[in-house]
Amino acid sequence: MNFRIGYGYDVHRLAEGETLWLGGVLVPHSKGTVAHSDGDVLIHALCDAMLGAAKLGDIGRHFPDTSADFKNIDSKILLYRTNELIASKNYQVGNLDVTVAAQNPKLKTYIPEMEKTIAEILGIDIDAVSIKATTTENLGFEGREEGISVHAVVLLEKIIET
Prior knowledge:
- Helix content is 28%, strand content 31%.
- By secondary structure, the protein is an alpha+beta fold.
- It has one domain (3-158): CATH 3.30.1330.50.
- The strands form two sheets. A five-stranded mixed β-sheet has the order 4-1-7-5-6. The protein has a two-stranded antiparallel ribbon with strand order 2-3.
- β2 (21-22) and β3 form a beta hairpin.
- α1 runs parallel beside α3.
- 40% of the residues are buried.
- Its EC number is 4.6.1.12.
- Homotrimer.
- A divalent metal cation binds at residues 10, 12, 44.
């Protein structure tokens, strides 16, 4: 098989006094994510999609939140390492599509920088990186601003040796 599709989903609780990192970008907001790492829920969902497509388990298997090694770690490092893991199985990211569900903050102005950051880390063209945001019309934990969730889909392509 020359390609594989992976799906990732992640959720983090929001709390005052925490920072909000999304797609490797610090987003100013009155609340941030509560997490063992920097809490970048977008990168975590993307890592899970990549790992799943390559049949390498999930983010917790490779970067457990019980390990001091990953306490407050920059999730961009986790994405870089995930990319190395899929490359070890001769795969590379073909494209990805991500949806962030958050009532606030509005993310439209931050999305181009997120896409650029992720494209650079993965070594792919920015046209292969799609990030979208949606509110939940004040419904659910995202709508009540108790948390933020992200859905990610990724296509991995087999690296063909010539």
